[in-house]
Amino acid sequence: MLLSEVTATAQPQANMNKDNGKDISVGIVLDLQGQASVLENAQRRKIQLLSYLKQNAQVQLEEGSKLSVSLYANRTVYRFVGPATIVVDKDQMRSIKGAPPEIKQVKEKLVAGAESGQLLAGAIRMRQLPPKIAVLTPENGVLLLRAPKELTWASMEKTSVAIRIVDEDENLIIEGQSSQNSWPIPAHLLWTAGKAYKWNVSFISRRDGGRYLSSGEFRLADAQVLSDLENLKPSDTALIEEWVLYAAYLQSQSLFQEARDVWKKIGKKRPD
Fold first, then answer.
1. Which residues, at least 6 apart from 34, have a Cβ–Cβ distance to it below 8 Å?
2. Are 89 and 51 spatial neighbours (Cβ–Cβ below 8 Å)?
3. Which of 174, 187, 198, 212 lies deepest, with the highest CB count within 10 Å?
4. pLDDT value at position 140?
5. Does any domain span residue 145?
6. Domain end: 220, 243, 259, which one?
7. Radius of gyration of the CA atoms of the chain, in A
8. 211/156 same-domain check
C-alpha cells in the first residue's frame, strides 16, 4: 500500500486522542516491516504505518516482523521484533510473549508534532480550486526558510493577471502583471525574517466582465526556527521512525515543502 493511501486511511483516526477511557489514542506507529494486527474493543484490524494505537490494545506481531511505536506520555519509541504479543498501556508497551522491546527516548518537540494530529492532516494536502483562479505557491499559511523566488497560481482563463504583495501591516511591497500562471519575484526586494506577507492575483474576465481574485499568506522563518531545525533534524544514518517524527514536526510548523522532501525520503526506504 502506498504511503498516500495509508495516510488517507488513517486520517479519520486523528480525532481519537481524547481522554475517554479505552478509546484514548496513546501512540502512533512510526515504522512497520512485515505483518502486525491489533485487538481493540474485541475487534481485530491490520496495523499500517501511521496507525494510531489505543490504550489497552493488544498487538500481535508476526515472526520476523518489526514494529516501532511512539508513546505520547513518555516521549519514547518502542521497537519490537516478532513473533511477539504486545500490550499497549498509556505510559508503556510490554511484551507478554516474545522478546522485550528496545526502548529509545526521542526529542519532545518531534513527538509533539505527531501527537498534535498534524502528521496525518498534512501528509495529504488536497486542494479544491475555485471556479476562476487560485493561488498555488507559496502555499497559503506556509512557513518558508528563505524568501520565495516565484509566485504560481491556476487560472481558468488565459488572460493578464495582476499581482500584489503586501506585508502584514498592509504596506505595499510590489505590484506586477503576468500573462502566464507564474511570476518571478524581483531579486532586489528586501524581506524581514519572522514577518508575514500577503499576496494576491486577480483578473477581469473577458467572458463575463467579473473580477476574480485569490490570495495567500506566507511567513519567513526567523533565527530560532532555523536553530530548532538544525538541532532536530535526524542524522543520515537515523532510523526511519526518527524521520517520520521529523516530518510530523515540519508539518506542525507549516514547513510544507520540507515535510514533502522528508516524506519522499521515507517513501524510498518504505516503497511498500
1. 61, 62, 64, 65, 66, 82
2. no
3. 212
4. 95
5. yes
6. 220
7. 22
8. yes
Q: For residue 242, give the DSSP letter.
A: H
Same domain (yes/no): 19, 88: yes
Do 165 and 261 lie in one domain? The reply is no
Instruction: Write down the H helix ranges in 81-176.
Output: 108-115, 118-123
- Read off the amino acid at residue 70: S
* pLDDT of 155 strictly over 80: yes
Q: Which residues of 22-57 are buried (b: 16+ CB within 10 A; e: fewer)?
A: eebbbbbbbbbbeebebebeeeeeebbbbbbbbbbb
Q: Locate cell 501591516: which residue? A: 169
Q: Which helix (H) or strand (E) holds 155?
A: strand 150-155
Report yes or no on 225 lying in a domain.
Answer: no
At residue 226, the pLDDT reads: 96
Instruction: Give the global pTM.
Output: 0.73
The number of folded domains in the chain is: 2
Share of the chain above pLDDT 70, in %: 84
Say whether the peptide bond before residue 12 is cis (omega within 30 degrees of 0): no
Q: How confident is the model at residue 4 (pLDDT cuts 50, 70, 90)?
A: very low
- pLDDT tens for each residue of 70-119: 988 888 899 999 999 999 998 899 999 999 999 988 877 777 766 655 55
Indicate whether 118 and 142 sit together in one domain: no
| Domain housing 181 | 133-220
